[in-house]
Amino acid sequence: MDLRQALTTAREAARHAGETLLSYYTLQYTIQHKSGGNPVTTADIEANTLLQETLLGAFPESGWLSEESADDGKRLRKEWVWIVDPLDGTREFIEGIDEFAVSVALVRGTAPVLAVTFNPAAGSMTHCSLGSGTFLNGEPVRASGRPQLRGATAVTSRSETRRGLFSGLEDVLEIKPTGSIAHKLAEVAGGRADLTVSLAPKNEWDVCAGVLLAEEAGAKVTDLDGRPFSFNQPDTLRNGVIAANPSLFPELFRLVAERRRWRPTVR
To answer: Which of the chain's ends, N or C, has fewer CB atoms near its CB within 10 Å?
Structure first.
């Protein structure tokens, strides 16, 4: 596969999908609920269709994994797989909060090789390819260089923050509730936040693009057990995410591990 062409196509597809989302934003649309009570809108479905037709149309030999597509397992036999969330942050989208994103990644084997997130409400596109660094609207960006954890800006899940999962950390971190884990990882990649932690399980489509964006920008990213991510697995669920620059990561990981010992597993 021509990765340069794949990245160009992914950026164009993400932009067009974002324009589709924006055409519905703050307007009336149909909202349904999937298993677990998660909402899905007409905008999610239309953006997913556009991405699938564009990416598989250009690269028909590749596999497909998306939040809004039935997974038939055929992707597991493919060398190249697109891992996509057409609208990460659906709740924020519904509530009119500008913290949602189109998330597109291409995986070879189990490792992402390119990634794009696009927040159409903010007009911010973050992209990268393996070994080439991360870019925001065409300009190179780096993760925060902050040397100490105290006072660091942590973008955290709104729902997890409301549930008190980060209570007691306000004296260490500046907690900033923010929507969409794809958006949060892009914020870390661009140095606009020092770190992000999600204590709740995440699916591959939630984090795949953001993991590569943050890593290419110089951040360290693992699951809650400190394991690096491996994608295109039969079970798509991962046990959360921690992302921060290498100076902050060890202390942050210890802090998260300590909280996990006295809190029940988050679901």
So the answer is: C
Tokens of 265: 């597993």
Alpha-carbon separation of residue 143 from 113, 152, 181, 186 (angstroms): 19, 13, 16, 9
DSSP string, 169-196: -TTTEEEEEES-HHHHHHHHHTTSSSEE
Q: What is this structure's pTM?
A: 0.92
Express each pLDDT in 136-153 by its tens digit: 999 999 999 999 999 999
Top CATH class, 3-140: alpha beta
* SS3 label, residue 78: coil
Residues 174-200: pLDDT tens digits?
A: 999 999 999 999 999 999 999 999 999
12: which 2 tokens? 């164009």
Assigned CATH for 152-262:
3.40.190.80
In the chain, ranges of CATH 3.30.540.10 domains = 3-140
C-alpha to C-alpha distance for 114 and 112, rounded to whole angstroms: 6
E strands, the chain, where? 31-33, 39-41, 63-66, 80-88, 101-108, 111-119, 124-129, 134-136, 139-141, 152-157, 173-178, 195-198, 202-203, 220-222, 237-238, 241-244
Cα–Cα distance measured from residue 167 to residue 139, given in angstroms and rounded to the nearest whole number: 36
Give 62-97 pLDDT, tens digit per residue: 999 999 999 999 999 999 999 999 999 988 998 889
In this prediction, residue 28 carries a pLDDT of 52
Report the C-alpha gap between 72 and 183 in whole angstroms: 28
Name the average pLDDT for the chain. 92
H-helix segments, 59-122: 90-95
- Where along the chain do the CATH 3.40.190.80 domains lie? 152-262
